[in-house]
Specification:
Strand 5 and strand 6 form a beta hairpin. The chain starts with 13 loop residues before the first helix and ends with a strand. It is globular and about 70 Å long. By secondary structure, the chain is an alpha/beta fold. The relative contact order is 0.14. A seven-stranded mixed sheet has the order 14-15-16-13-12-17-18, sandwiched between helices. It has a six-stranded mixed sheet with strand order 9-8-7-10-11-19, with helices on both faces. It folds into two domains: 277 residues, 3-Layer(aba) Sandwich (Aldehyde Dehydrogenase, Chain A, domain 1); 188 residues, Aldehyde Dehydrogenase, Chain A, domain 2. Helix 4 packs across helix 5, helix 5 runs parallel beside helix 6 and helix 10 packs across helix 11. The protein binds nicotinamide-adenine-dinucleotide. The site of nicotinamide-adenine-dinucleotide has 31 residues, from helix 8 and helix 9.
Amino acid sequence: MPESRFNFQSELSDNVRNRFYIDGQWTAPSTAQKLSLVSPVTEELMLQVPEASATEVDLAVKAARKAFDEGPWPHLAPQERGAYLRKIASEMRKRESLFARVWNAQVGAPISFATYLVPTAIALFEYYAGLAETHEFTEERQYGDGAVARVAHEPVGVVGLITPWNAPLILLSYKLAAALAAGCTVVSKPSPETPLDALLLAECIDAAGLPAGVVNILPAGREVGDYLIHRPEFDKISFTGSTAAGKAIAAACSERIARVNLELGGKSAAIVLDDADIGSAIQTIVPFSMPFSGQICFSLTRVLVSRKNMDAFLEAFVAAVESVNVGDPAKPETQIGPLATRRQFDRVMGYIDKGVKEGAVLKTGGKAVDTQERGYYVQPTVFANVDPGMTIAREEIFGPVVCVIPYEDEEDAIRIANDSSYGLSGAVFTRDAERGYKMARRIRTGNVSVNGLVVDPGIPFGGYKQSGVGRQGGVEGLKAYLECKAVYMPA
Ligand code: NAD
């Protein structure tokens, strides 16, 4: 099996490997605490980088506060902020391949997947640059007897950005690009499993010449994250991660009525209607039910098929899943690599066990991949005859595990799709796009695709129910970083 692919450490600067980015400076750590990066492919320790502590959070929030309260950033013309965002995008483009390899090495994202998706992060900076240039940040409204109020959309202030390990660059870019376009200053705490993406992004920000203190980046674990969210200097926390952590963060923010955005877990359903083209539905459902080994929040992990079509569907679906290329994520042909961490591996194997015990029918997979060597590989797994009440149908597994659930008719399909504490994404497969749209409107989730699964920077993304609060992407993503002020002008 593969050897460690982390063979490009020399391409990482001394700053990225040894420092944090605080107040426009590369800052040496105040403690000897390290984050250990373990290869999911070989289970070897690849690299250690400093972990930020409360001391760095204090420095960073002070710098961000000063940059917001006294610095030029919130008062620049939005077009000028847009120009900075374009410079960041152009610096990112120079490092495109490195961003993909860093994602691949840290958590085992297949290199084809990472290479395909890194441009989305760059596109987010360009999209929000465009919005900064064109958005109406003030408007006039008439009231009463011809009087005028000016409604100004102002930056919300200093924002804490907390992001997970699964898509570290893209998820940070959603938040950072929108927050900067709005005129906010930020402290970003990337996850301890993936510190490098954000530090590479800090290099881009530094090269783009943003004023000191506007962006501060300090990778650290949960405890430091907990310290950060309780700092009263933050006007807003924007979080992407698990629903459990999201609840703790919402509770902490509620104490001081700090604004909060939460992008949380999902258990999204793909409804395959009887008129669907099964072959092309399966071509979409296979990759999107387990993208990056199912470690993506919007994965279509519940596949709803009518009882009438179940046998034919299952036969084709299982064959397609069994033909997925599982292996070394550094190889371009690999579609499914290992899970990101030992913790993820144990969690997913635990759910597979539970599925079998609760009586779901294991159609394929269910075991660790026999690599003869090491690595956190789990076979792509399909459970059939899953009851919507089973644990594997209700909880987010975050692994390559799909539950195929039978439905009686359309009403039943909608009832099952909505029978979830989550409400993130979903898909409807049908030959009739308008029928698909009508179904989509009845599914209680933030996103639904008809005959596919699409996420685009210009379109809002986010969850209903316990999948979150607020939206990222689109103009909605910009508004998440704006407060609204009404100024009544003299009549
Ligand atoms: P996690 O919640 O364990 O950690 C996410 C981040 O929050 C990390 O940086 C972590 O250090 C920090 N953190 C954890 N607890 C905290 C606390 N109490 N206070 C402050 N910070 C805290 O999640 P994870 O395992 O890294 O990521 C997987 C989860 O993220 C899944 O549930 C997935 O669905 C979700 N996710 C959601 C989206 C979305 O857009 N909706 C996108 C990607 C991932």
